[in-house]
Each structure stands twice: as C-alpha cells, then as structure tokens.
Amino acid sequence: MKRFLLYFLLFPSLVWAQAKVDTIEVYSPAMKKSLKAAVTTPSDYGSSTKKYPVLYLLHGGSGAFDDWHKKVTEPGIVNKMAEDYDLIIVTPGVGPASYYFDSPLMDSVRYETYIISELIPEVDKKYRTLAQKESRAITGLSMGGHGAMTLAAKHPELFIAAGSMSGVMNIDTRMWKVPEDFQTLRQTQQRAMLGQDLQYDAPFSTYTAVGLVDKMKANGIALIIDIGVDDFLINTNRQLHTMLLENGTPHDYTERPGAHTWNYWTEALPYHLLYFSKHLKRQ
C-alpha cells in the first residue's frame, strides 16, 4: 500500500489520466456507404466545457481506421499524444489503395469528398472541436501522407498544417523501389480510378502531391515531411522536397534512419505532434 501511495504521489497523471477512444460510423452520401473512424479525446474532455483542436491522422494503402491504435510499436501512443497535447485525434478509414482522392470514374472512390465534406463536419457536430482552420491539422503514413498533403493543398480553408510520414508523394510507381509486379498492380489500380490516359511525367497530375506544389506555396500551410533512408518511397519524397525548395515553399523536411515500418511511424508521430503544437490555435 505504501509503495502504491508513493507511486500515486509521484505520478498522479499516469494513474488517472486516460484518453478515451470512440468508434463512430459516418454515412457517406457520396459513396452510399458508412465508414468507421476512431476518435480519441483527452482525459479532461468529459469534465470540461472547452473546445479542442483536432488532428486527422490517416492510415496507409492497405490499412484501416484502427491501425494507429493496433499496429503501433508503442501501444497507446495515439492516446498519449491526445493527452500530452490536449487535443482530439481522428483516425478515419478509407478503401485500399484509394489515395484519399475522388475518382472521376468510380462512384465507390470519393474519399476526398468523404473526408472534407462528410467526416469533418460530422466530427465538428458530435464533438467539442474548435471548428476552424487555425485549429485543425492533418497527417498520415504512406498513402495517408499522400492524402494529408493533397487534401490540405486543395482545401487550405480547413487546415493550418499538414504532414507526411513515408508518404507516396508521387503515385508514379517507376520511382518506387519495389518489385515490378507490385508496380504493375498499383499502376493498374490507379488507371482504373483515374483513366487509361493517366500521365506520370511533368506536368504532373493534380491527383498526386508533386502536382500540387504551386498550391502548397500559395496556401502557406505549415508542412512537415519525413522519410526513412531505407524506405522504398524515398525518391518520391526527395523529389517533392526539391520541388518545394525550387518554388520557395517553406517546409520542414527530415530523413532519418528507418524503413517503411510501424517502428518508424510510431517514432515519427511525436515529431509531428510537436510540430503541429506550434501552429494549432486553442480557445
């Protein structure tokens, strides 16, 4: 008993402070289906009346809405980030290899519309959020990094900051260090969503991050990009970094030891939260 009491006195927040995770379903009129999202609120959410900034945290190409809660190498890190930075974290689920864009050909791929026009308004309605650009950020891993960067570039009225961890900054699989059969598979999926006449060379398609660098400059959104030096997508990140340097877009770019793994993303997440904390406005 004395040992527990000493632990409580030294670390009260560790004993009592616990973020809460809700699983919600949001119906998409655009796609005529419901999709799940996890919403993590800090421990003081239920006992206060204040409103909170929000981070949208996106999963990768074959992932799901609960990846950030189940696959991280530090269990509970999303809860910890929500607690440490006193904000709401939303992890939505989307279809595999869908890149978070609206396909001009497939009614089942309207994930830009879903995130921007359906999910965000629903979260703002159901939770006490600071429903303004200055209090909203977005980031993600792999395909989610692509989604975060492109959605923020296209919708600067909604986000103050955006990030990418190991992101697909160019959907041209010729730049990916992967086997040829995987390149072919992804190209086939991309052409099914975007059309057989999809061009991969400059001027780049606005369906991919490198095609939106002028918008990134004009929008002035705070950007953080990182990639592991052993990641198969590193060339696409270096390409975007170079293009942003060339057009004078301020951004934070880092290459660190690591590959396309959950160990890397688990370690990268706190860096993104620290960066976003400098830009998110509070009540």
UniProtKB/TrEMBL annotation:
Keywords tagged on the record: Signal
InterPro entries per UniProt: AB_hydrolase_fold, Esterase-like, Mycobacterial_A85_antigen
Pfam families: Esterase
Species name: Algoriphagus pacificus
SUPFAM superfamilies: alpha/beta-Hydrolases
Signal sequence segment: 1-17
Protein name: Esterase family protein
